[in-house]
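User: quick one, sequence for these tokens?
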């Protein structure tokens, strides 16, 4: 592990003091030349100030939004004014944690950069979080400041009473109904558009991202300035090949690291533009692609599947790249999208713990069913339960290392995630003889029935190929005879009846495609599947 001797810029050392001990952190590798960052670096300065002052991109559009477009220069000026509000009016000192709460919009983006410019640690939360969930985050991270969209003020105000550390709040995007709330815009109006960014160390914490909660127990993951730069200099360069002329759009919230990278950081790194839309449905996303001439799309498999049937009603000719992450991409969904648009989806697996995608492929390297290979800068292997490497063709635990890795905020689960320098992601994978990685299941979702290992996603993929199935989730449930049996939760498309005949038809469909022991012995019909705000299927809710 590389140990830095740089001096922290943080006066508030709460987060730094709660980093995992060195022996519980993963090994970090910086094999690519572009990953060797100087000891002093502020990622906001590098991504935004340099775009304007060094690259001359000031007049380029950075953000397309419903309220209007922002150039790079305008985004920089806005972020600088907010940074002054934070430091001059709200008493922020380097190392303070700042909660951000808003849908995807330009003000949220500007606030993100402002916090980091000021030396703070940004904690962006999903817009749909309720008071209890916000309280858990604020208390865990000992958050002292918050910048919140006024339309989302109610739950934060409810949470505030149980959060004694949260002393400074400011609201933005207010209207006549929220004039009594503190206005960030009013404070900004009196501030200069210049700001001297805090001289942070490359291993100063700048971001705490809370996991999106597929297990129901979110954890705070801490990332350095160098980590933010590393994700910008790995996947989007080597695999996505993002270009300055690209216009990016998608569904993931900026609170989700998949969205933070794809929807904000990656475009700004190369001088491209992003389209931020506060709330997207499949038809509205397709309309946005048509109207904004979007070239690169980021969304989850569920959206690609829902959009495939409508794509023919819109002009999607501008699209050149489509990225999927957040959960496993079913083969059936990949095929539907390619038939509808002619585009091969770039699949990827990432983790909040590693900040962004670490295994993926280019469109020319697609292998059916495979997530891909480790992207340049990362290594991966398959380990058995004792931490020993498994040969090709074996199912085991996915282990990853690279320039980013897991650092939980004061959490005993750190010891389970990191083993012998590897990040153990919690995914069961198989690697073939050519080095392609094939997703099997989350390790806690692997179904063991009568001695057979069954990956729930494989059964889901099979069910999704049936014309009646809109979405589904597959889990193992206890069984006295077999230990576990496969149970499928199925939401049907309009026009199909959720009855015993349909259940038998789906069971027969699986038996005809997969080994008979994998078919769902139990089927329960539902109107929809429980998902996180980022689109991940919450199998723990199905099991419950």
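Assistant:
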């Amino acid at each position: 592990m590389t140990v830095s001797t740089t001096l922290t810029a943080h006066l508030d050392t709460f987060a730094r003091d709660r980093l995992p001990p060195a022996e519980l952190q993963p090994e970090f590798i910086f094999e690519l030349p572009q990953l060797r960052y100087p000891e002093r670096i502020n990622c906001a300065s590098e991504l935004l100030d340099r775009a304007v002052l060094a690259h001359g991109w000031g007049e380029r559009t950075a953000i397309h939004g419903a309220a209007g477009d922002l150039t790079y220069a305008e985004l920089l000026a806005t972020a600088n004014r907010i940074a002054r509000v934070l430091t001059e009016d709200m008493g922020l000192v380097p190392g303070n944690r700042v909660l951000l709460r808003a849908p995807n919009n330009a003000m949220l983006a500007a606030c993100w950069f402002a916090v980091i410019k000021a030396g703070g640690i940004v904690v962006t939360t999903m817009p749909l979080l309720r008071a209890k969930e916000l309280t858990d985050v604020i208390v865990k991270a000992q958050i002292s400041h918050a910048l919140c969209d006024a339309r989302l003020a109610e739950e934060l105000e409810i949470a505030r009473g149980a959060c004694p550390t949260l002393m400074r709040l400011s609201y933005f995007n207010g209207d006549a109904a929220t004039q009594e709330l503190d206005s960030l815009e009013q404070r900004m109006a009196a501030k200069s558009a210049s700001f001297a960014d805090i001289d942070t160390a490359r291993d100063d914490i700048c971001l705490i991202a809370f996991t999106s909660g597929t297990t129901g127990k979110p954890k705070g993951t801490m990332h350095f300035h160098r980590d933010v730069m590393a994700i910008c200099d790995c996947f989007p360069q080597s695999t996505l090949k993002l270009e300055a002329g690209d216009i990016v759009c998608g569904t993931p919230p900026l609170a989700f690291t998949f969205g933070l990278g794809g929807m904000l950081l990656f475009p700004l790194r190369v001088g491209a533009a992003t389209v931020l839309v506060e709330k997207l449905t499949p038809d509205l996303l397709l309309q946005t692609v048509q109207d904004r001439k979007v070239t690169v799309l980021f969304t989850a498999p569920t959206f690609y599947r829902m959009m495939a049937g409508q794509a023919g009603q819109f002009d999607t000719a501008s699209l050149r790249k489509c990225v999927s992450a957040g959960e496993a991409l079913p083969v059936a969904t990949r095929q539907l999208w390619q038939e509808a648009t002619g585009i091969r989806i770039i699949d990827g697996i990432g983790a909040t713990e590693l900040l962004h995608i670490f295994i993926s492929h280019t469109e020319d390297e697609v292998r059916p069913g495979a997530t891909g290979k480790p992207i340049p800068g990362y290594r991966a292997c398959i380990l058995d339960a004792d931490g020993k490497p498994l040969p090709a063709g074996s199912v085991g635990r996915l282990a990853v290392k690279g320039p980013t890795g897991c650092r939980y905020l004061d959490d005993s689960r750190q010891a389970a995630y990191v083993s012998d320098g590897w990040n153990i992601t919690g995914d069961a994978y198989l690697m073939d003889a050519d080095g392609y990685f094939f997703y099997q299941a989350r390790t806690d979702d692997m179904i063991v029935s009568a001695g057979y290992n069954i990956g729930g996603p494989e059964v889901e993929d099979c069910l999704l190929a049936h014309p009646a199935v809109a979405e589904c989730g597959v889990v193992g449930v206890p069984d006295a005879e077999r230990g576990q049996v496969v149970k499928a939760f199925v939401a049907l498309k309009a026009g199909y009846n959720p009855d015993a005949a349909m259940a038998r038809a789906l069971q027969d469909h699986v038996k005809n495609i997969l080994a008979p022991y994998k078919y769902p012995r139990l089927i329960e019909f539902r109107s929809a599947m429980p998902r996180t705000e980022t689109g991940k299927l919450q199998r723990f809710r199905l099991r419950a």
